[in-house]
Design a protein that fits this description.
The protein is α+β, with helices and mostly antiparallel strands. About 35% of the residues lie in helices and about 20% in strands.
């Protein structure tokens, strides 16, 4: 994910997910907008929602694995398709969805949960003028155009003896739907899980998306509406508005060099302007020259004295800051009630007694159970209002993953829980959990 996001991108992309009334959020979601890149990309946006099946722990792992595998495989393959427009996007999606299914089957075998552990998956990939949809299960995709809303996907009914809808992980030979739809600038693509559309009508979805100032606000409002109307499931929504323009393509992609790329062996040459013709310097009287020299000398003396005191002050600061840790923060000797937090608007601060709304996911480390739920209760007692729980797939030790620019939030969460954690900026993991901070717990004392 890019650390710098344009205002246009913030307006046209939305993602919101909550565990709702459930203790663990088994939904997964992620969306990545490429439309603002230069040179003009072939693929404008990739988004997906997944709803895990097989019980709280298994469903959570399955949906998260599906999202991570989908975006990981797309990231490794898309450059070839960008370079060669003749390559078929539908074939790309078929290949990726097969690999997602294989990965979930591998995990199910490892856990002896074949035909129990799985996930629905509804994903879209947009090109200019064309939307590709890959779909299995009962999550939904809608197209909003002006005053109309159209359901693009078909809910797959329960199959076999599981009572669940069709899902990835059922078998190696997986039947999925692949759709191709025309799109125009201003269209809105909206994906959601059944925890939302089971309680919010199509007309309410249409009204919220058309009335919202931006797509993030729309997703937030629709998820809140589903919860208010009694949804007893996890609730997830993502949305994307087709941009009016997506850059230029004056030269083929094969001939383009990324705008920020600089060869390490070449020093960029800056064109030199021709100097203006010299003019004869005007004659300055002798007494004025002496006064000017005296003024310059006085200025140099002032600068030297100021520099001495500034250097002395900075040295004192550096001496006082020795010994601070950069990657681990222990707060056992600090009073948590005196700590400040970084609020949802970046530099804003809030005391522990105030409402803290940025999304946090707490995960039980591999082989652990119950820690995330205990930690959630503690955070909620300290004013956190958007905390979900789950289980880590691989991590066995405490680690805090965070979105770009959210390190202060990760430190704040660890401080409020009274634990020591390692910190890692990892937008992929954080976004797969729809959170600013994802904290894995291998130990926690309430």
């Amino acid at each position: 994910m890019n650390s710098e996001i344009s205002l246009d991108e913030l307006k046209r992309v939305g993602l919101r997910s909550t565990s709702g009334s459930q203790p663990i959020n088994q939904d997964g979601a992620y969306i990545r907008d490429y439309a603002g890149k230069i040179p003009k990309p072939r693929y404008l946006c990739l988004g997906a929602v997944a709803d895990g099946t097989g019980g709280q722990q298994l469903g959570d792992i399955a949906s998260t694995t599906a999202i991570q595998t989908l975006f990981g495989q797309f990231g490794s393959k898309k450059s070839n398709y960008e370079m060669d427009p003749s390559m078929d996007t539908a074939e790309l999606l078929r290949e990726i969805i097969s690999q997602v299914n294989t990965r979930i089957l591998e995990l199910a075998r490892q856990k002896n949960q074949l035909q129990k552990m799985g996930t629905t998956l509804t994903a879209f990939l947009a090109e200019e003028g064309t939307l590709y949809l890959i779909h299995v299960g009962n999550s939904r995709a809608y197209l909003i155009r002006g005053g109309t809303i159209t359901l693009l996907t078909k809910d797959h009914p329960p199959e076999g003896n599981t009572g669940n809808t069709r899902f990835l992980g059922m078998s190696q030979a997986m039947e999925v739907d692949l759709l191709k739809v025309g799109i125009v600038p201003g269209d809105i693509i909206f994906l959601c899980t059944d925890g939302l559309y089971g309680f919010v009508s199509d007309q309410e979805i249409l009204s919220s998306l058309n009335a919202a100032q931006d797509m993030q606000s729309a997703c937030r409002e629709l998820v809140r509406l589903a919860v208010r109307k009694g949804s007893n499931d996890n609730v997830t929504a993502i949305s994307w508005m087709v941009p009016a323009s997506v850059g230029t393509r004056e030269t083929p992609l094969k001939e383009r060099t990324p705008a920020t790329a600089v060869s390490p062996d070449i020093t960029p040459q800056v064109p030199q302007e021709k100097p203006a013709p010299r003019r004869a310097a005007p004659s300055i009287p002798t007494h004025r020259r002496k006064a000017k020299k005296l003024l310059v000398a006085m200025i140099l003396v002032c600068v030297a004295v100021s520099g001495f005191f500034l250097g002395w002050w900075i040295a004192g600061l550096l001496e006082g800051n020795k010994g601070e840790k950069s990657e681990e923060v222990s707060i056992e000797q600090q009073n948590p009630t005196e700590q400040e937090s970084v609020g949802e608007q970046g530099g804003m601060t809030a005391t522990a007694s105030e409402r803290i709304t940025f999304p946090v996911t707490l995960l039980n480390a591999k082989g652990k159970s119950g820690l995330a739920e205990e930690a959630k209760r503690k955070l909620e007692s300290r004013g956190y209002s958007n905390v979900t729980c789950g289980n880590a797939i691989h991590d066995t030790q405490s680690i805090a993953y965070y979105q770009t620019g959210c390190r202060d939030k990760a430190i704040k969460v660890a401080q409020d829980l009274g634990i020591t954690a390692r910190y890692e900026e990892n937008p992929s993991i954080a976004s797969a959990r729809s959170s600013d901070v994802v904290l894995v717990l291998d130990n926690f004392v309430p």
